[in-house]
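2024-03-11 09:14:02 INFO queue: dequeued item Palmitoyltransferase, len=235
2024-03-11 09:14:02 INFO validating residues
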Amino acid sequence: MINLVFFTLTCFTNPGTITKTNELLFLQVYEFDDVMFAKNMSCSTCGLKKPARSKHCSVCNHCVHRFDHHCVWVNNCIGAWNTRYFLIYLLTLSASAATMAVLSAAFLVRLVMVSDLYQKMYIDDFGQFQVMDTVFLIQYLFLTFPRIVFLLGFVMVLSLLLGGYLCFAVYLAATNQTTNEWFKGDWAWYQHCPLVARRSSAESQSYQNIYSHGLWSNLQEIFLLAGPCYERKRK
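2024-03-11 09:14:37 INFO prediction written
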């Protein structure tokens, strides 16, 4: 139920659509780094000024504040206003898949223990009695309970994939990055500074994230939303 609630919130919450009415407000939220996000840039499609960390979504056909990505799972953009819901949705979805895997495995283990299958014998292709081994036991369970074994395999793979994606999403949140910024960060730096290859190897040649202000501040920015940049400077 929790997963369904946050799935619905992620689907229907405005991700931070930039319009004429809120354009000036969004322009004050983040500073421009003049590498990935330059000042006085306008969206060629919307005709609006582009705030820092925003991007035009070709699927939704509008610019989104603090654009992360367009998620086909929820048929909505992930932006400043629904990232918090998306993270909790991803967390509960991973937990649900892991719970299904644990319950399926526990059922099969309980079945083996109650039936004493691990102590039984079987006849091989040569007519010899053999002690039940792990490979044969798995084959027996698959033939006897194919749906449960298939479900177990499926949710185990799903748990690993979702867990990996969850770790990546938490890493981005902890470092105050978006998927869009992580993907094109260093590339934007090299495009902006074509002579960077001539610099000494001792000097850093990677994109520096100016939006990260420590773990706690980064998480607050996502779950409590960011205020204008001049307020953060004053603090």
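2024-03-11 09:14:37 INFO annotate: The helical segments are 2-12, 23-27, 83-115, 134-144, 146-174, 179-192, 215-223, 229-234.
2024-03-11 09:14:38 INFO item closed
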